[in-house]
């Protein structure tokens, strides 16, 4: 079909989005090539910010690797748990609808608000976790130990976003064709073999989609960290976004923050494209 | 095999269910505590471990002058921003999605898929990248710390979701529907509004719910782009967290803030079980 009217459908949305985004993006690039102070605004300093970023700022790269570690770990955990849960409530089970609703609930709750609750939950002397663990003579420092603070962030992220993975995978499972399963049943395949040779391959495209979507969202981890640990102790839970936030909107080094955020955006686009390609190859190899 | 598998299955489901419910239960009990029952170490069961008090819930309706937490205004702000931005995103996103699903566009090397990708790829943009220019721009046109400024930003967050869900949905609505309408003498607008749209209600509901979820739960932009004039709910609660420590009022206000969207979980599950979602989410 082709009509002149097609532009009337497409353009309002497209131009509103471009209109809102185009100046900010151009401005980030321009700002990243500038020094910034409140007296005389922008002054062009060429690539100085980028040179500083690539040669003299290990903290940015550390925060970036920390972010990669946190997002990959949480997404793997979410995928495994989400798939297991979706598979368990896919077929007949008692209280099926109750469990489905229950498992969806965390993603409907505001992450920062739940994180405020989690903070009290993991409180070192007054929280229930350490109250229970103290019976075994343990009192881990959930929020102030560099390693455990990461674990806490991961636990909270997994709690919050496994439901999203669960939702995508369950929707996928429910849309699978019936014939392959009938064939497997006729062949007398065991449940394990049925999962490995029928369900899992059929779910591969949906799995890839779900993993990529979650990786995109996880790469933005920031508000949970802000509320839970404020990047601490030290910088041990600081992610890229959080570091850029500190530089740009706390220390007001706008130009430098813009160069970091532009670099960060480019790295995100490249790495997500590569991950998508690799996953597609791995999971669809046959 | 059979028995062990069944045991593990229910064990895992129960374990996860407890994990999901735990923070809510903890917040609920905490909201009925007072100073002594919070600061004396963790307590769990009302009347047995501690004497329940209603103070945490009372401060919700008190005015701030009397020591209340004043979350009513942020509540309506959040509701207004989320609904307006979702509505605009859904209307514009649905129109664009329909165009991308039905018509062919070509401008140089840019084709339909590229335009769709442009829409969806806005989700990849880390919020921090946009926050700095938005902060300066909205400041320049006096929209910093205002509801309109936030709505503009939220459209960028939400329209990709609307387009993503609706393109997939329209691809599944048979083309014959529009073609028949056109043969019957409708113009393309009538075909869309009178025939295609009424057949797309499930897709619209799913897209609407996702826009509302992702608008309601956003903290970052509200946190950076508003200060005192306008406060959204998540920012308010986090501010409570750092300014006052009474866990009881904190828990009560947190519970009140997350409650409305839990209804959405029921609606999503309905659509999921009916199989409507499998088409809408892919």
- How many helical elements of chain B? 14
Please report the distance between the alpha carbons of the first and last residues of chain A.
Answer: 37 Å
CATH topology of the largest domain in chain B: MetI-like fold
Outline the low-pLDDT stretches of chain A. Answer: none
Strand content of chain A: under 5%
- Report helical residue fraction of chain B: over 70%
Give the SSE string of chain A. HEEHHHHHHHHHHH
Q: What is the level 1 CATH name of chain A?
A: Mainly Alpha
What kind of sheet is the major sheet of chain B? 2 strands, antiparallel
Topology, pairings included?
The complex is a heterodimer of chains A (286) and B (282).
Chain A: H1 6-32, E1 34-37, E2 41-44, H2 48-56, H3 58-90, H4 96-108, H5 111-121, H6 128-133, H7 146-174, H8 179-186, H9 191-218, H10 223-228, H11 240-250, H12 254-283
Antiparallel strand pairs in A: 1-2
Helix pairs in contact in A: 1-12, 3-4, 3-7, 3-9, 4-7, 7-9, 9-12, 11-12
Chain B: H1 2-30, H2 35-39, H3 55-61, H4 72-102, E1 106-107, E2 110-111, H5 112-121, H6 127-140, H7 147-172, H8 175-183, H9 188-196, H10 201-216, H11 220-225, H12 233-243, H13 247-274, H14 276-280
Antiparallel strand pairs in B: 1-2
């Amino acid at each position: 079909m082709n009509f002149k009217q097609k532009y009337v459908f497409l353009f309002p949305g497209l131009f509103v989005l471009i209109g809102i985004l185009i100046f900010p993006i151009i401005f980030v690039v321009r700002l990243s090539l500038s020094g910034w102070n409140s007296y005389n605004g922008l002054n062009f300093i060429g690539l100085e910010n980028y040179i500083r970023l690539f040669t003299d700022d290990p903290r940015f790269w550390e925060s970036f690797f920390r972010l990669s570690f946190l997002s990959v770990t949480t997404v793997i955990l979410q995928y495994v748990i989400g798939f297991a849960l979706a598979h368990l409530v896919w077929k007949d089970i008692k209280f099926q609808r109750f469990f489905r609703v229950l498992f969806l609930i965390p993603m409907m709750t505001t992450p920062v608000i739940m994180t405020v609750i989690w903070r009290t939950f993991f409180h070192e002397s007054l929280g229930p976790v350490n109250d229970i663990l103290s019976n075994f003579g343990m009192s881990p420092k959930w929020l102030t130990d560099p390693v455990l603070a990461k674990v806490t962030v991961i636990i909270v992220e997994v709690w919050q976003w496994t439901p999203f993975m669960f939702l995508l995978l369950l929707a996928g499972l429910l849309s699978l064709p019936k014939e392959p399963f009938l064939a497997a049943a006729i062949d007398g395949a065991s449940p394990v073999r049925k999962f490995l040779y029928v369900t899992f391959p059929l779910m591969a495209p949906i799995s890839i989609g779900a993993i990529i979507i979650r990786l995109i969202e996880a790469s933005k981890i920031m508000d949970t960290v802000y509320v839970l640990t404020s990047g601490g102790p030290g910088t041990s839970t600081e992610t890229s976004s959080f570091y850029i936030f500190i530089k740009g909107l706390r220390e007001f080094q706008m130009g430098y923050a813009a160069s970091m955020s532009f670099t960060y955006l480019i790295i995100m686009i490249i790495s997500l494209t590569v991950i998508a390609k690799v996953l597609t190859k791995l999971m669809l190899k046959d | 095999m059979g028995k062990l598998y069944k045991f593990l299955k229910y064990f895992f489901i129960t374990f996860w269910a407890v994990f999901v419910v735990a923070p809510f239960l903890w917040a609920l009990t905490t909201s009925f505590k007072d100073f002594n029952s919070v600061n004396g170490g963790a307590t769990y069961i009302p009347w047995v471990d501690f004497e329940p008090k209603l103070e945490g819930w009372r401060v919700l309706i008190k005015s701030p002058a009397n020591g209340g937490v004043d979350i009513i205004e942020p509540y309506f702000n959040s509701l207004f921003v989320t609904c307006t931005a979702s509505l605009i995103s859904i209307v514009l996103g649905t129109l664009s999605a329909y165009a991308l699903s039905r018509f062919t566009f070509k401008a140089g090397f840019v084709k339909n898929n590229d335009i769709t990708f442009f829409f969806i790829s806005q989700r990849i943009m880390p919020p921090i990248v946009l926050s700095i220019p938005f902060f300066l721009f909205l400041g320049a046109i006096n929209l910093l710390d205002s509801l309109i400024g936030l709505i503009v930003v939220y459209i960028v967050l939400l329209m990709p979701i609307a387009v993503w869900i609706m393109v997939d949905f329209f691809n599944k609505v048979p083309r014959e529907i529009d073609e028949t309408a056109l043969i019957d003498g409708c113009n393309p607008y009538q075909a869309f509004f009178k025939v295609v749209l009424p057949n797309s209600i499930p897709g619209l509901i799913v897209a609407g719910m996702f826009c509302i979820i992702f608008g309601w739960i956003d903290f970052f932009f509200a946190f950076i782009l508003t200060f005192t004039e306008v406060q959204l709910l998540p920012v308010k609660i986090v501010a409570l967290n750092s300014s006052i420590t009474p866990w009881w009022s904190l828990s009560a206000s947190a519970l009140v803030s997350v409650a409305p969207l839990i209804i959405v979980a029921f609606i999503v599950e309905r659509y999921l079980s009916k199989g409507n979602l499998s088409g809408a989410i892919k």
